[in-house]
Amino acid sequence: MDYIWAFIIGGIICVIGQILMDKTSFTPAKILVSFVTVGVILGALNIYDVLVDIGGEGARVPLPGFGYVLAKATMKEVDSQGLIGAFIGGIRGSAGGVAASIVFGYIMALIFNPKTKK
């Protein structure tokens, strides 16, 4: 049942993104920034925790999940380090995911022949 809920929650987030792309004049960059910002705000208010409890990785993997991770890591570091935690929390919380993205992106670029769009 966990897989089904992850699929449903992740799918709803993706549907919202697709609707924004189809029905508004937002650029993909604006949607990306909006999703991360919404994730930070909902994570800071502990509202996104409900989605994570229900959807698990289906809520953590999309862009709002990245914002959620930033908010939670920053709040944890502020509690333990004080004001300096506001500056280092997001970096510590997201470092593993960002590093993995870079490494796997590089590996895929080596395996496949990337081309620029024309």
UniProtKB/TrEMBL annotation:
It comes from the Bacteria. Keywords: Membrane, Transmembrane, Transmembrane helix. The keyword Protein transport does not apply. It holds the Pfam family SpoVAC_SpoVAEB. InterPro entries: Spore_V_AE, SpoVA. The chain crosses the membrane at residues 6-22, 29-48, 84-112. PANTHER family: STAGE V SPORULATION PROTEIN AC-RELATED, STAGE V SPORULATION PROTEIN AEB. NCBIfam families: spore_V_AE. This is Stage V sporulation protein AE.
